[in-house]
Amino acid sequence: MKKVEFFFDVGSPASYLAWTQLPKICAAKGAELVFRPMLLGGIFQATGNASPAAVPAKGRYSSIDLGRFAHRYGVPLVMNPHFPINTLQLMRAVTGVQMRHPERFESFLAQLFNALWVEALNLNEPALVGRTIIRAGFSIDEVLALTNELDVKAQLRSTTDEALERGVFGAPTMFVRDEMFFGQDRLVFVEEALS
């Protein structure tokens, strides 16, 4: 079966936008969507890349451009005023839920993406993270335990390292076989690669 590997971090608004479109694209093309949670901060550190927000003019433009894509896709997007969010614990939680509760993974991911990019919550605040976890149907203790499991931490590191080895420098990055596509604005090329 054809598949799209989706390397992402919930702290990336472009990852959010790609996430709103990839399930439809994969369904239409008869492809499997494979979620590959990685730590974008680790990618940036290893590659010397940085968020567009690090360059004020580019950051302002990126916000406008992402808004245009959200309008095109017909999805909500609120640029989070608390950006950037430290996503280490969030991405450990995403990885842990994917590993231990795969049947609940997509709904958990949806809660996080919506909290960050629709509600624009400050997920640097533990109380707001807790509220989001509870809304996703988990207890705070359950998710905290997952984020502290050694194999969960190792899996997130391993996926991030694999992404680096494959040439990833930002999020989202998609692979169809060995062909890499960076950015939610490249989804048309992902569709073509699946055809």
Automatic annotation (TrEMBL):
Q: What class of enzyme is it?
A: isomerase
Which Gene Ontology terms describe the biological processes this protein takes part in?
glutathione metabolic process; naphthalene catabolic process
Q: Name one GO cellular component term.
A: cytoplasm
Asked if the record carries the keyword Cell division, the reply is no
Keywords assigned by UniProt, alphabetized: Isomerase, Transferase
Q: Which InterPro entries match?
A: DSBA-like_thioredoxin_dom, GST_Kappa/NadH, HCCAis_GSTk, NahD-like, Thioredoxin-like_sf
Name by which UniProt lists this protein: 2-hydroxychromene-2-carboxylate isomerase
Organism placement in taxonomy: Bacteria, Pseudomonadati, Pseudomonadota, Gammaproteobacteria, Pseudomonadales
